[in-house]
Give the backbone structure.
Amino acid sequence: MAGAGVTATSARATLPVLHALLDEARRKDFASGVLGVRARPEWPSAPTFTHADVPVRVVPCVSALAVREALLERVRDQWLVVLTDRPDDDLGAGVLSHLVWQRLRTPDPWDAVRLRFAATGVDPSLTASADHREIAIGLLVASPSSGWPPAPGGVLTRDHALGAVAATHLGLTDPVVDATSVLAWTADPAVVARVADLRALAGDALTGTVLDWAAGRAGAAGQALRHLLRAGEARDAVPLGLVAGLLGDAQDSAAGEAAARAAEATHRTSEARQPTPKATRPAPEAMQVAREALIRLEPRLGGAAPASAVLRSWAGESSAVIAGMLQDPGSRANAEALLARADELLTGARAAGLADGSDLLPSGLTRRFASLAGALRVALTSTAPENANPDLPQITDAALANIEQAWTLVATHRLAEADARTPAFHSAVRLARWLAANSAVGRTTLRALFDRHGDSDAWVDSAVNDAAPGASDPDLGAGLAAVLAAVRARRGAHDLAFGAALAAHTSDDPAAVSGGHGGVRHLEELLPDVVVPLARSAPVLLLILDGMSAG
């Protein structure tokens, strides 16, 4: 039990606070001396250290007599720090006269923090939490060698203090800290290590407060983001935002579609044809899948899933971050890693079937390619028997519309341009448009067939070369193969017709039979009729190119 005159105090001196008090004494032109600190007489750290090249000795003193003994043992030109909880009356004026400022200093870490930020006051919001002393000590420990930036206006605000820590130690250096900049910061591969380093340096109280502050700047998604940051899962903020937004959209659009169908059914007369269960099933199923997936993700979101508007906002900001990274060659690989993580999260939530609703997820692009391949297969397996003539349209208008719709979804995906599968499927769509048109010519003369080749068959051959590499996935490859088979059948027929026309053209002397070549120039006439007349007036370079591998 404490004896008479003992001051009950919970204050504990820490090394950052002592450094701050010594700095304050140096600013008052005290190069050395005795610093008396009113605190618990305990010091678990090393008894000596150096401050500004001056040795410092810390002595805990449980009584006035212990303080006097410490003063007698003091080494001149060095600092002596006395830690005691004795009241001033017990120490007496003689002892106090030896101390800098002739009094004991209470170790107020916020006062030291205020000085470090060159502030005249501290915003009460910084000192309102139960662990505010630990936060202050963390700010002192985390102080950079160049010092904290001075508080604007003289008052140290929460935004200035925590923003300075975030910029110095966490790499959150954007001048405007908002949802986009915070999410972009979480996408940095070094963010987890930086948070761990700050926690090891300045403690949990300051680190958690800075993370809460950063999450609070992220707007509507701040609560979910706060949970991820606190759990050390900052790198999942952008992928999870993409997934949560996709699920929210699927849930809402499915619900809206179901409502529209229900309203339509309500207004129909009893004689009208009712929609079949097959037609109404997809919307509720998609809504159910999305709802259950969001429930599975709730532990990652820190509780119940946010409202749809919050999910859309989060997804929009995450998409903007990823889109910017994809445009930068230096960050594209990181963006692709985050998108791959988003696919993992979607699969883990058992909602991979909804990926084709995303313009960013790699699995969504693959599913869109699959839909396009399916549309190509269906279009070419449903050709009417009367279209056995390869020159007649091989694809109906309705089937071509489905192909165009599927291709639009592929082409609008953010990853499609750089995807190796895109050139083959783009060529397949162009070939499908050609197959949907009539390729017959009015006359089968050699000249007419020459023109058809120049107008269409030549680029068809080029498109075939682009589509021929196919795709490694068997289902995707089947869609390309169906198009190529139909194209080869039509081109084969064109080649046969051309061969017949060429045979007829060369069977007799065209000049003798028709009085001309019918607009066809023969190779043996090239030099006398073209090159030589040109060479008489200007130098001519004749290039002979091997075209035997082309049609």
Residues 24 and 115 are 8 Å apart (CA to CA). The two ends are 106 Å apart (CA to CA). The first helix runs from residue 15 to 27. Confidence is low (pLDDT under 50) at residues 1-9, 258-282.
